[in-house]
Amino acid sequence: MPEDSRQPRQSRGGSQAGQGRGRASDRGRGAAPGRGQGQGRGEGQGRGQGRGGSGSRPGRKDDWRRPADDQRPRSEDQARYDGPPIPEDITGKELDRSVTAQLKGLPEKLAARVARHLAAAGAVIDEDPRTAYEHTLAARARAARIAVVREACGEAAYAAGEYAEALSELRAAKRMNGVTAYLPIMADCERALGRPERALTLAKSPAVANFASEAKAEMTIVEAGARRDMGELDAALRTLENAPLTSKSRTSWVVRLRYAYADTLVAAGREADALEWFHRTEAIDGDEITDAGERAAELEKRQG
Questions:
Q1: Measured between alpha carbons, how far is residue 213 from residues 216, 218, 257, 289, 303 in Å?
Q2: Ranges of Basic and acidic residues compositional bias (predicted)?
Q3: Cβ atoms within 10 A of the Cβ of 171, count?
Q4: What pLDDT, in 10s, does the model give residues 209-240?
Q5: Single pTM value for the model
């Protein structure tokens, strides 16, 4: 397995570690200034000492007593728990009702904080997926047993290129709620981690037969990509040819299917056929979600 696929697991830990960090941070914030947890000054800790005695890092509420240049930086765990700053105009009410409904089992203030982190993540995931991921990590640290939180964390990790973490989070969400809609993303994560065989196993899951058209198309694209990863270009082409490439719909999933087919034709050395399908892709790509027009122009130039 590539090194970068292992490192995120080592640095971030699993969901239980996330929950533990959250609880520890809550305890730290609740400690009275100048006192250790469970100890009064009469038990050996004065006002100038921190939670764990004279050799421990002082509680964050004690930092105000120290000169600015002597305040210690937040630990990595504390920074992850706090998350990025949440814009003041993000209230959490931006979330869909189905999401907020899953947060109702949390204490009110905690639910509000988690909702704001999730809403903030959704607001920036397209232009700044790394910050979005950090927001979802902060939400997970507070509510790791809520399926929608793990789902959001997985999707943000995927957008940020943290494929091992995305796979772990989406597996957790699937265990919690039984939802199979994550399978295409999970399969693509397996591809990104250099495991195309596992991607194919997910693509053959019985649940895929019941997917809506868009989800089926996404899984088809991932399956064809896995075949290409394994050097099976003919199988990749057959996979795409069994999909509704000639659908009259102009929706984005048809655009992506056609583009994937044209790109695979190029890889197979069938440039004349690829040119036709790049043109057919461009014809329905009104939102320009692909560069089909540019690819067609390149092929035309190359063919003279």
A1: 5, 9, 11, 18, 35
A2: 59-80
A3: 15
A4: 999 999 999 999 999 999 999 999 999 999 99
A5: 0.73
